[in-house]
Amino acid sequence: GWISEGAGGRGSQYQNAKGDGSGGLEAYVQAINADRKSRNLLPLAPIPADPWPKAASIAFLQDNHVSFLDDDEVLVQSDSVKDDVDESAVFLGGAVIPNKCLFSSVCVGGTFDGMHYGHRKLLTLAVSSVQPGTGKLLVGVTVDAMLQHKEYAELIPPLEERIRDVQTFLHRLAPGMKNRIRIVPILDTFGPPGSDPDFEALVLSHETLENGHYLNEHRIKQGFKPLQLLCTRRTEPHGMSSTALRRLRQQAKERENIRI
After folding, report:
1. Which has the higher per-residue pLDDT, 74 or 252?
2. Do the beta carbons of residue 4 and residue 11 sit within 8 Å?
3. How far is it, in rounded angstroms, from Cα 27 to Cα 34?
4. Which of 224, 167, 159, 162 minimizes the C-alpha distance to 193?
5. Cβ proximity of 79 and 115 under 8 Å
6. Which of 5, 45, 10 lies closest to 25 in space, CA to CA?
7. Distance (Å) of CA 201 to CA 61, 102, 232
8. Of 24, 153, 168, 248, whose CB is crowded by the most CB atoms within 10 A?
9. Helices 159-173 & 117-128, crossing angle to 10 degrees?
10. Going by C-beta distance under 8 Å and a sequence separation of 6 or more, which residues neighbour residue 256?
11. Integer CA distances (angstroms), 28 to 22, 23, 32, 49, in order
12. Total-model pTM
């Protein structure tokens, strides 16, 4: 629900309402859309927020080799470079990633449906975490068969298209790394880092930290070293997701069918 300090007129009925009923997100958007319709404006679509992942707890982060790449304590501002940063350090958005966050073999994986801002940010941080000149990056893209359980799965582009979009973005982002980047299909739960001991780090978002933890447990059972989990937060706690974007596309199609 939502809470306001004061309300008048039609808004007073919603002032202290909670949850998903009267005064919840759906009712709030309906009220806004009623006004927008009178102004000949297109309706807004409600986007429910996903629950905060339990893997974001401080205890979990301390116990699972987690570094947040977009935190100030990891990214050193370029006008005050610290001792562990040399001329080969990677610059990203005016910041420097110190050598302790550069690795010879980095991996990142995902569905990469639509290549929205979150995907581009994830891939940019993955490229920036690779040791300059010699390091390698492996990008895993989930195969179609593993996505059937996802909401609005029928709207997810086929594997070939998603791989092509990832490749296009990376080649534009880091053309000098073409020979050091591999893009492969993810065929099982853990992908290549579940069976290859040479990987050193995994780049992931905070929503998937638990998956990184399970992967490290699997690697330890295999006799491999756990991966350093290089995590990026969303720009907002509940940012736009691929599922939310697919939901919007589905709603747009339904509205279009109603007009027809």
Report:
1. 252
2. yes
3. 11
4. 224
5. no
6. 45
7. 15, 9, 13
8. 24
9. 50
10. none
11. 8, 6, 6, 15
12. 0.65
The Cα–Cα gap between 190 and 192 comes to 7
Give CA 29 to chain center in angstroms. 26
Tell me how far CA of residue 212 lies from CA of 61, 191, 219, 235, in angstroms: 11, 12, 10, 20
* C-alpha 48, offset from chain centre: 17
Question: Which H or E run contains 181?
Answer: strand 181-186
* Amino acid letter, residue 97: I
Q: What confidence tier does 85 reach under pLDDT thresholds 50, 70, 90?
A: very low
* Residues ≥6 apart with Cβ < 8 Å to 134: 104
Q: Round to whole Å and give the CA distance between 98 and 128.
A: 10
pLDDT band at residue 94, thresholds of 50, 70 and 90? very low
* Residue 74: per-residue pLDDT: 43
Does the CA dihedral 91-95-101-107 come out positive or negative?
A: negative
Please give the structure tokens belonging to residue 77.
Answer: 């501002």
